[in-house]
Design brief:
This protein is mainly alpha-helical and 194 residues long. Helices cover 74% and strands 0% of the residues.
């Protein structure tokens, strides 16, 4: 067991490097120009200003140099600056949200472990009964369904139980038709099976 853990830990930096390189490469070949996306083509920004932004960001360099610079900065703890947050350091943005994120993830982990252990023990104790089959079905559903979909569904159900689907639909989307369909599809109170 110890050898397996050591092998996995030794492989982790290589895997992270490969994933980072592939992701960086995919962004490079995607055809999205970060400068045009930043300045919004319709704003009438001059080509000289675009070239200056590209030079300051380093996107006019070859992709291997961009990746090397990014990786060097990452190793030093510099995650860069946020374009959408007015040039604030990304590390500071992450740090400001780390406590809330840790609390959320920790609470979800505790609930998952306690609930999973309890239901697993009960399903094993009542093996072959309807309870065992229900727990199995919920486990398969939980593994098969995307996490964001389950989370969004729970938000819709929580909002709907405190004020109805129409009010929840108005709060969840700018497009009422889509939101009404979404909330009526996922809402516990308005579900087709009720």
């Amino acid at each position: 067991m110890t050898k397996l853990i050591v092998r996995r830990l030794l492989a982790l930096p290589i895997i992270l490097l490969v994933v980072a390189a592939v992701t960086f490469g995919m962004m490079a070949v995607s055809g999205i120009d970060p400068v045009n996306a930043y300045v919004n083509v319709e704003n009438g920004v001059s080509q000289q200003a675009r070239d200056e932004i590209a030079r300051s960001w380093g996107v006019d360099e070859p992709i291997y140099q961009q990746f090397g610079r990014w990786l060097g900065n990452l190793v030093q703890g510099d995650l860069g600056n946020s374009i959408s947050k007015g040039g604030q350091p990304v590390a500071g943005e992450i740090a400001s949200r780390l406590a809330a994120t840790s609390l959320l993830v920790g609470g979800a982990l505790v609930l998952t472990l306690v609930g999973g252990l309890a239901f697993g023990v009960l399903a094993a104790a009542f093996r072959g009964t309807w309870f065992d089959w229900v727990v199995r079905a919920l486990c398969f559903f939980n593994v098969a369904a995307p996490g964001f979909w389950i989370g969004y569904s729970r938000c819709i159900c929580s909002r709907s139980s405190s004020g109805g689907c129409r009010r929840a639909a108005r709060r969840t989307s700018a497009r009422p038709a889509t939101a009404a369909w979404t909330s009526s599809t996922f809402c516990c109170r308005c579900a087709p099976w009720r």
